[in-house]
C-alpha cells in the first residue's frame, strides 16, 4: 500500500522515471474550464482530436461509448492492413456524432460537410477548430 501512496508524491516532486506530470498554470486551467463549459451543452457524442475532452465524461456525458482517437495507432494499423479506412470517417459519414470539433484543414472536415454536418461560426475556446453539428438523427448506426 505504501508504494501506491508514495508514487504520486514522487511524480509531483519530479523524480526521474516516474512519468510526465505537468501541473497547469492558472491560465491553462482557465482555458481548459472554458473549453469544458463550451462543450457541455453540445449534442453528444462529441468527436474531437483533443485528448482531454474526448474522454467519456466530456464527450458523451457518460451516456454513449466514448470515441477517444488513438492518433498513433491508426496510421500503424492502416500500414499493417489491420484497418482499411480512417475509423472516425465512417462514423462521421454515418452521422453518428452529435457534434464535431475539427480544424478546416483536417481531412475529416470535408467528409463532415458532405455528410450534412453544419459548420457554426461560434468560436471554439483555445483552438482553431470549427464546431460542426449534426442536427436531426443519425442516418445509420455503425
Question: What would your notes on this structure say?
Answer:
With 142 residues, the protein is α+β, with helices and mostly antiparallel strands. Helices cover 37% and strands 12% of the residues. The protein is built from 6 helices and 4 strands; from the N terminus they run H-H-E-H-H-H-E-H-E-E. It has helices spanning 2-13, 26-39, 56-59, 73-79, 87-93, 108-115, and strands at 46-48, 99-102, 118-123, 130-133. The chain has a 4-stranded mixed beta sheet with strand order 1-2-4-3, with helices on one face. A hairpin with a 6-residue loop joins strand 3 and strand 4. Helix 5 (87-93) packs parallel to helix 6. The longest helix is centred in the first third of the chain and has 14 residues, at 26-39. The radius of gyration is 18 Å and the shape is globular. The mean pLDDT is 83.
Describe the structure in brief.
The chain is an alpha+beta fold. It has helices spanning 2-13, 26-39, 56-59, 73-79, 87-93, 108-115; strands at 46-48, 99-102, 118-123, 130-133.
Strand content: 5-15%
Average of pLDDT: 83
Q: List the total number of helices.
A: 6
**What radius of gyration results from the CA coordinates?**
18 Å
> Globular, elongated, flat, extended or rod-shaped: what is the shape?
globular
Q: What are the key terms here?
A:
142 residues, alpha+beta, 6 helices, 4 strands, 37% helix, globular
